[in-house]
Amino acid sequence: MVRPSPPIRRARRLPGARVLSGLVIAGLLAGCLPGQSDPARSVALPPKPAGIPAHASSREGTRNPPNPMPAASSRPSPPTNPRAESIPLPGIENARRIGPNLWSGGEPSGDPAFAALAAQGVRVVVSVDGARPDVEAARRHGLRYVHVPIGYDGVPRGAVESLAGLARLGEGGVFVHCHHGRHRGPTAAAIVAMAAGAWDPATANAWQREAGTSPEYEGLYRAVREFSMPSPKAVRAAARRLVPVQPPKGLVAAMVTADHQAEVLDALQRRGWKPLDGRPDETAVPSARLLREQFTESIRLGHGPGDDRFREAMRRFEAGLAVMEDALRAGESAKASDAWKALRNDCRACHQAWRDRR
Ligand code: HEC
């Protein structure tokens, strides 16, 4: 492959993306079926024309590869749409097989789950959940963990680079999971498939719907719709940074996100919960849900003081957010506004009790 000179390389990202697509397809998606492991052969596969440029718009898509598995006569015929195959795996919710070497699902719990993944041909387990991955259990079954935690509000650029960087590991099958395997995990798996050049954004969005990703997580759909391939340099750097466990971000980071979301809700509430000018992506129900999800996640991960009364206060707040969300869904603006004002007071009350008097 002729290396374009630097200025051209900067101006034209496509060639780089193609090189990478070839790598990724070889490493992730075009690999062998379980039991036929032959990494050398899979890496030697030529970059498949089936890999469409990651940023190709769906309008150009008269070619027909919504299929992340390249054709090979010796294989069972692959799905021709993003309807990935559901596979029952013990201790893993919503497990689906997207391609010969790519799976998505919920958090594997216990040895049987990891054993089942290993038997499928998985070698690398990727968690995009905030919880600490069970690295030890994975290791007992010869699996390596990579931790790329993301929220429900989108996929930060660094995480896109890390997900693209997975391909460089060249270690065989990859299983991408979040907590329940419906929202963040399928989204991250879609990004892996797009970074492989195997799916265009429209196909990847269709897969998210298929996997049950809620349309209310607009940021997750947007991350897929607006995916662009990171530069090869960024991908290489990200691949070097991949770690099995990211240190927990904790309550402070959760509160910073909550604070942003609360400001969005303030603005929406002032407009009678109508969409904000120039911010079509921040509408009432999804914004309320994001904030609630932030608290649900903090409770689950045990953020903050390990004190029953604090946990209780967090749960009450979460329940209040659910009431507001229901009111918004039902179009009961006044009720939602009252609920939000009460919640705003609860932010302050909790801070007085737990933050400001330490
Ligand atoms: C149940 C208790 C509780 C509730 C409810 C709560 N917070 Fe907090 N918040 C805390 C605690 C405790 C801290 C201090 C965290 C620390 O410093 O370790 C904090 C810290 C913060 C911070 C400072 C973060 C930083 O940079 O140090 C912000 C901003 C914040 N909260 C916003 C909010 C908003 C907005 C709401 C309501 C939508 C809210 N919080 C609801 C307990 C709560």
Features:
14 helices, 6-stranded mixed beta sheet, Four Helix Bundle (Hemerythrin (Met), subunit A), alpha/beta, 49% helix, 2 domains, Protein-Tyrosine Phosphatase, Chain A, 358 residues, binds heme C
Structure, briefly:
By secondary structure, this protein is an alpha/beta fold. It is built from 14 helices and six strands.
Q: Could you tell me the mean pLDDT?
A: 80
Question: Span from first to last CA?
Answer: 61 Å
Radius of gyration: 22 Å
> Strands of the largest sheet, in order across it?
1-2-3-6-4-5
Tell me which CATH architecture of the largest domain applies here: Alpha-Beta Complex
Ligands, deduplicated: heme C
What percent of the residues sit in helical stretches (DSSP H or I)?
40-55%
- Could you say how many structural domains there are in total? 2
Which assembly state applies to the chains in this document? single chain
Residue share in β-strands: 5-15%
Task: List the secondary-structure elements in sequence, H or E.
Answer: HHHEEEHEHEHEHHHHHHHH
Shape label: globular
Question: Structural class, from helix and strand content?
Answer: alpha/beta
Q: What summary fits the major beta sheet?
A: 6 strands, mixed
DSSP strand count: 6
CATH fold-type name of the largest domain: Protein-Tyrosine Phosphatase, Chain A
CATH homologous superfamily grouping of the largest domain: Protein tyrosine phosphatase superfamily
CATH class of the largest domain: Alpha Beta
Number of helices: 14
